[in-house]
Design goal:
The chain is mostly helical and 362 residues long. 74% of the residues lie in helices and 0% in strands. The chain has 17 helices and no strands. It is globular.
């Protein structure tokens, strides 16, 4: 049976921890703008452009694809030779506790706070509100997201887990050819696929990649780590980011070229993130992200939405300049993460069983 080495496990834990922080930073933006607004708008500062590149191009196209790849890897990690009905039932049972329950609890809190309580207060609760409450777990109004927006990743992952036998046997049968085909489809067809079916191709592609790594018996970190031509890779990644910015400004976000480049950014982010984690572990060997820290960061991911402390601070002060925006953004993110970590550890200390259910028994 496959097993993780300690070094391998520590690097993946660090990667998960950093990805959760990255997701928070995506949703802590101050006055986010589209490229068209940046190009033709007023009050655009150096921070506005930095935030667009850092949060929307780099983080937004790194965190979720890498999470999908890790999820696919661990979903099939112990199934290198077979995936039986008993294996499938076991996966469903463990993911029910580890993914569905946290998803259900986190969304329920948001439903109660943002839909049910306001409707009772305004005395508008009726059958239509009840329908909205039920459907908001899957898709809230016309956003395409659950009411707790970032949990769309968990929602779509649950669908892929249900389809895991199909994914496993397809990857086992066609191997790297299927994975490459899915990535090519993701790069060139994702935009039209979304317009037709309201679903992205990239979750399927990245989970299938994780599956391929797992059943092939590859080491997740070594698979992506750049051993040679690091400078060439970094310059290529930088060139894609700069080209994405160019097309964002000249043709804006809905252009075909921009969406192709975004998918390339997602693919290029995997080796970059893994190499970054390997560098951190090499340079700061004493820095260890424990299993408990990863669990706490998962709690932060579940409940950070709508806090938006940087934006709240920004709109309650009158100092509007680039330096202040940078300070507010990074300090605000730190405060938001610290508050949520305090809440988690308080729950863990006072009501450990409830805390365990909230994070899926991690």
């Amino acid at each position: 049976m496959a097993s993780l080495s300690k070094e391998h496990s520590l690097k993946i834990s660090l990667l998960k921890f950093l990805l959760c922080i990255g997701v928070v930073m995506i949703h802590c933006q101050i006055n986010p703008m589209s490229w068209s607004e940046i190009w033709g708008g007023q009050n655009v500062t150096a921070f506005t452009v930095f935030q667009k590149v850092f949060a929307n191009i780099i983080l937004d196209n790194s965190c979720v694809p890498i999470f999908y790849t890790i999820s696919g890897y661990f979903l099939f990690f112990r199934n290198q030779t077979s995936y039986s009905i008993a294996d499938y039932k076991s996966k469903l049972k463990s993911r029910f506790k580890g993914i569905f329950l946290p998803f259900l609890i986190a969304n329920s809190i948001y439903v109660i706070w943002f839909r049910i309580l306001p409707s009772f207060k305004e005395q508008t609760f009726d059958i239509h509100v009840l329908y909205d409450v039920i459907t908001s777990y899957w898709m809230y109004e016309s956003t395409g997201l659950p009411i707790n927006g970032p949990l769309w990743y968990m929602r779509d992952l649950m669908v892929l887990i249900l389809l895991s036998p199909l994914i496993y046997h397809s990857v086992r049968l066609f191997g790297k050819y299927l994975v490459c085909g899915l990535f090519l489809a993701m790069i060139f067809l994702d935009q039209s696929f979304v317009e037709s079916f309201h679903y992205h191709l990239y979750p399927i592609a990245f989970v299938s990649l994780g599956c391929y790594i797992a059943i092939g018996g590859f080491d997740f970190v070594s698979f992506f780590k750049i051993h040679r031509l690091r400078l060439v890779y970094l310059l290529s990644y930088l060139a894609i980011i700069l080209t994405t910015i160019y097309f964002g400004v000249s043709k804006f976000e809905d252009s075909f070229e921009y969406n192709v480049l975004i998918r390339l950014c997602q693919i290029m982010s995997l080796p970059f993130a893994v190499s970054l984690v390997s560098f951190i572990k090499q340079a700061y060997a004493e820095f260890v992200v424990s299993h408990d820290m990863v669990t706490a960061s998962f709690f932060v991911f579940l409940y950070h939405y709508n806090f938006q402390i940087p934006a709240r601070i920004y709109h309650h002060v009158s100092l509007y300049n680039t330096c202040f925006e940078f300070i507010i953004y990074f300090v605000g993110c730190f405060i938001e993460i610290a508050i949520l970590l305090c809440i988690y550890y308080m729950l863990k200390k006072k009501v450990p069983k409830i805390a365990s259910y909230i994070v899926g028994g991690r």
